[in-house]
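@channel anyone free to eyeball this complex?
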Amino acid sequence: MEPLRRRKQIAVVAGAIFFVVLVPARNRAFGQTPPHFYNVDKETRIEGTVEDILMEPRYEARAPFLVVILEEKDTRRRISVEVSPAWFFKEDIHKGERIKVVGSLYGSGEGIVNLIAREVQCRGRTITVRDKRGFPTWSGGRRIRGGQGNGA
Amino acid sequence: MKSRGILFFFLLPFVAVLLLFLTLSSLNRAYIRDKTDQLVREQLLASATILSVSIKHSLDDGSGPEGLIARYGGEENIYYMALLNARDDVVDWTSRFEGYLPFSRQSSGIGEAWTIDSPAGPILNILRPITSKKGDRYSLYLGYSLSGLDDMAAHSRTNFFLLFGALAVVGLFFFFGIYVLHRNSLARAEEAMAEKKEKERFKAISGFTAGVSHEIKNPLNSLSLLFEYLSKKAPGELRRDIDLGRAEVQKIARIVDLFSDELKPLVLNRTEIRLADVFADVRSALAGESSAKGVPVLYAEKSPAVLQGDRGLLGQAFLNIVKNSLEATSSGTVQIEAEPSGREVVVRVADTGKGIAPEDLGRVFEPFYSTKASGMGVGLYLVKKIVDAHGGSIRLDHREGGGTTTTVVLPKEIP
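replying in thread with the prediction:
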């Protein structure tokens, strides 16, 4: 009976994990982050120091994105900046470096503010990753169309 | 009309037609573009209405707003789609481009449909209100791609410019061809005019010379008779001088006759001629002079050169040419070559003489023009007259290494 109880316990835990972790993730419709889009009404400019540089999957069936964790200069807030697909961003960014970002805020949680970048300024250079309405520069022009993405 | 005038006479209307075509075609394309744009917008608005009704039904059936968009999205020409709640917060959305949803509360108030430009082409934005059975108010926000219209317009523009370019090039070639034809025709007309003037001048000279000849010959005849009478009556010691004077008077009369004859229009007595026979006579006539100078006159033909013409006149013409060559040559040879070539016979007389100065080449066929101290300037003039009467051409060329080549081209049959 002991192994049977143990198997039941494992099944319950697995079920709990499925409902707690995977189902909400599915409900987020493949988004590895909470639903987010470039909201032009929430555009802001921040300046901070690079704390960490990450590569994270952000959109369904898309290459991992470069995500920079910043500590804002004035407020000391921690901000997660979604820059662009890692392959697209050719500039070197190092920890401890001070950068400026123009982007759209899309929510916060766990002590961190999220931002989708439109322009990144580092070492005197400005790298534009989206146009003023948030169209991703890496998606190319009219002849290059992205596949089906799901932002929600 | 001058050549330049004709160019503008044809070219300017053509350019005007091209500009008219350009203007009308541009207006027509703009009209079609507007109409197509209008039709597409109407179709997309209808499509958005259908979508909003479907979503309303789903909401009425108890579905939550989350996840609805994924159910209805996926159409290829929809770039993005979102469901907004009553506070215009995005409840659910999808986009073909990562994070791209250009909804703004500032732009959404401008009407139910508006167009924005994007790197992926123009996008038609539509905002449709939805009210569920429970009274919850939503808005469906859609972004339809209009790049197909842009592609169509670009395609139409490319085709138009290709057609316009082809028309312009073909037209320019056509009118340039007309211009060249006209220019050539003008040049021929000028040549004909010059020829006519030359004939008139010749006629005037001919008339004048005939008159002078007549006036000179009458006293010369009297003088000749007088000398004859004096010769019979004069003592023996004077008779020799009187005969000499009579001979000189007769010489003057012959010269006058020569002028008169050469200025008369030629009447051809056509027969079939073998040039070998003609040049045999020429060589025979010049045999004495040729052997005295030690300059042989040689004749060669690759195949029998036979043509139609006046044997006497052509014989005289070739005699003059060969005689001139022989007189100009102190050593070497005078080489004659006759060669049938298609419908023509080409005769070349090449000597190794002193040649002709370039400034004289253009004038040697003029009447009374001679480079020889004793020449009267009628020999080559007569040659040209005979060759022209046979429908042929004559040319003199300076030879490399000295000497002159006279080339006569005669048709086998006189036109």
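from a first look: Chain A has a mean pLDDT of 76.
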